[in-house]
Amino acid sequence: MSLDTVVEPGDGALLTVPANGRLRIVDLHGNQAVDTLFYDSHDIDNRYSAFDTIRAQRAVYLTTGSRLLSTSGDELAVITDDTCGRHDTVGGACSQESNVIRYGVHTRHQHACRQTFLTYGARAGIGQRQLTHNVNFFMNVPVTSVGDLRFDDGLSAPGRYVELTASRDLLVLISNCPQVNNPCNGWNPTPVQLLGWW
Amino acid sequence: MKHEIPAAAAWSAPVRAGRTITLTALADNANASTLIIGADRLDRLNIPDTLKSQMSARIRAGMVLMSDRGLALATVVASGSDWHDCLIGAPPDRLLQLELAKHGFGAADLHGSVNFFSKVRVTDDARASLTFDPDHARTGDSVTLRAEQDLLVFVSTAAHPLSTTEPAPIAVHIETSVQTEPAEPGGPELRAEAVRALELTRELIA
Ligand SMILES: [Zn+2]
């Protein structure tokens, strides 16, 4: 095993995962959103594209078999195991500014995922311009036939996990979401475990 | 300013705060994949933030298009359709990238787009499967956005990525607007989140 670490809510990680490496994210306590971005480690402009990924699979939710594509159409990783069953990629990451819009100005100084992305991304040259629409592992964002979207109670449970296999050398930028204003973390953000084999 | 964007072309222009930009389909099956960048040239249209704050999986009249940093970029003040796709992204399009490059932007600025005039149906199944609606856009359909700050607007008329039909031309009309109220009388109702974004934007930069 190459990686075994716990990430507290409000904290994050920047991982280097080589091609064919397997990364498992374990939802230790259930219903914890793990906001995640993927970059080609040799060219960070070739990064995860939520909407190219949705287009290619012609479905909104991610699960086993979903190919995570880049803005150039390259396969960055594939979800190769999933005991949760469904993950979001249209809800984006929380930010202090979007919290103000959604919940009011009293949330302006609560820590948010995009703070974590900027903190951990900096040493790889990932700044505001390089942040894009992410995957929210374990998060339940139903999108319906009448065109509605909402954040709902999670489908995950303690110990459920998702596993990805890298299709090329990757940087994986993770924020374990500290959001307390909606049900994405079951109103109680909790730690997750990262396991890696490469 | 009036301009006709031919089919399978790309176009961009600044749109000053307070002006409106109207896109009109000049043939059936038109598609206008649109990217917007705000006044400071860093703050881009953020589709996930736009959708989650307004509890919608589509763009329609009465929605505010929001930026990465929680500001209003534009309000959809009128629309002939209640569903503009925003889940599929812009088509891979060299011409659109060239328009971005003209303004100094590159691959890092390819963000989620609104595909005006196109509809992709969502099925209520285990994966929220998507199918393109081939009978959605009609000649003469139009959508009007009001710029809530100085914008750069990028439009591609390439066919929608899931469409099998030929691309179509789009007319653009940019006008000075005197409209300043967030909600027009009798117009679409804005959610509280949209009003908050508009108020904040007007206090700070508009
Ligand atoms: Zn978050």
Automatic annotation (TrEMBL), chain A:
Supply the InterPro entries for this chain: DUF1989, UAAP2
Instruction: Mention any Pfam family matching this sequence.
Output: DUF1989
Q: Which residues form the DUF1989 domain?
A: 6-171
**Name of the protein in its database record:** DUF1989 domain-containing protein
UniProtKB/TrEMBL annotation, chain B:
- Entry's transmembrane regions: none
Which domain of life, per UniProt?
A: Bacteria
Q: InterPro entries given for it? A: DUF1989 (IPR018959)
Q: Which residues form the DUF1989 domain?
A: 4-90, 96-152
Protein name as catalogued: DUF1989 domain-containing protein
